[in-house]
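Handoff note, outgoing to incoming analyst
You'll be picking up this chain. Sequence as last confirmed:
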Amino acid sequence: MRIWRILLFLLLTLLSGAAWTFSPQPAASQPAASQPPTTVIIPAAPATTPTPVHIITPTPQPVSPTDYLLPDSNSRYLTEADLNGLSHEQLCFARNEIYARHGRQFKTPQIAAYFNSKSWYHGTISPADFNPDVFNQYEKANISLIQQYEKKYFGGSYY
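Most recent structure output, in case you need it:
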């Protein structure tokens, strides 16, 4: 009966995965001094190999030093080829980028949020106080081109 208890104890210990140390007591018929106590160490069940964790670090994308959609829209005439591939919303931002360079603030929350996220933008002029005479020849022509492109391909401005 004692063997069954020990076997049951060992089986439960192995199944639970815990390591146990036990020291059997000397039998009543044997004097404690005649035999040193024996320590039995039951090893724990082998630990499962942990699944490797893969940390995905996005590759930093190169950022334009100026962070503009059309960085040279203030210094050259744009063409339709420059606008091809821009989404409707990006066209709206590209057109307003010309205004933003001159510090114009924006009433439309989405446009304001977009430009407020740009390091180069400093909106200091309210829309009511903004004077379009600050635009140079390239900027005037490019605003007109983007507006025509938006109307031609999208029916008008995004916002």
